[in-house]
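P.,

For your records, the input lines for the assembly:
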Amino acid sequence: MAILIVDDSADSRALIKRLLEKHGLGDILIAESATDAFALLGLDHPVCLAENIELILMDGVMPGIDGIKACGLIKSHACFKDVPIIVITASDDAETLEKAFAAGAMDFITKPVKQLELKARVNSALNMKHAIDQRKAREAELVKVLEELEGLNRELSRLSSLDGLTGIANRRHFDQIFEMEWRRAIRAGHDLSIVFLDIDFFKYYNDTYGHQEGDDCLKKIAVAAGSVLKRPADLLARYGGEEFVIILPETGVDGAYEVAQQIRSAIEMCNIPHSASQIADHVTVSIGVAGGKISLADKSQELIALADKALYEAKNGGRNQVRVAGAVS
Amino acid sequence: MQTYLDFCKFLVTEASVNNRVVIDSDLEDLIPGFIEKRQEDIQAINAAAATGDYETIINIGHNLKGIGGGYGFDRITKLGAAIEQAGKQQDGDKACELVQVMKTYLEHVEIHYE
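Structure tokens returned:
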């Protein structure tokens, strides 16, 4: 970070440079005119060089563009908003100073330059600049941390709605979406269906192949069932253990039965070996379906209970089949 | 007439001032060059006065006013201000006389570094 001296007088530039160096401020840039200063500051470049400059000492009276006008032009660039400019002027009359401050100067030094005054005013300007830089760095850090936090919250929210094993929605997310779809179905007068799915003889599967294979089987079932669902609003969730549930908005029992049959078939097609099954040599599922028009008088848990009941009927009816429950009410 | 009298008083005051100046030792190496450049200023002002180039007289006077005291030569600041004023008044003779005062001053000044 450098101090830029802009002065048309070589004697003045040499003096100010030497006095700053004496006070340990050795990183100094020199411009002989406002135009030179603009080039050094990169005012005409797409990338401004404000971050290289911590202070500008600007002679007030210069041929061509004078110091006060130059001050205004530099300050009109947003990236130099926080770079202090001290105007050095031989005339300390009120009008000159008013113009300098109006142009964006933060302070002034009268010529001839006195060491003590130069040191004090430069230190004060640098302290202010450092305080601003520190504040900006803290703000940037805060924004970064907030962005990270928002990202983590989003990820946390996503993870909290997923089943860790299968990667599909978990029971908690199902409960939220089901309540939402239930209210939407009542409001819009649409059908709503629920499909319950349970793996046949899954306990025997685990006993035979071990829990690791059991977990793999659950993942495959989730993939197979999910592949049948085509609409964004259809939701497949793990309800618990080897039980899965599907929400089918705007779908009556006939449509839900079709989807359920496709899922049952898709799982059979996976041909996952199951030597301990009493009905086949591969994994099969039993499915219960319930659905229809929903009215205000209905309770959401009743639809779930009906689908669950239909599932048990499928089990009792010999498994590897789909059963449809009666209407909700 | 009054202006002329003031000017004479100014010259008398200037002539009677002690020629000893104390300059910061950190500036010592800059001083020979500084004094050399004033010789150039003296010649330039004389030349400008001869051609009626008052703009140059004003500019040099302004510069002398701004730098003199900074280096420790308060007298040069005062003379510079007077030269600038002479330029503004388009008084080439006065500018030449002031330059002569500065020339004499620089020839006799005793510089002490501290």
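Two observations worth noting. Strands of chain B lie at 20-23, 110-113. Chain B has a mean pLDDT of 89.

Regards
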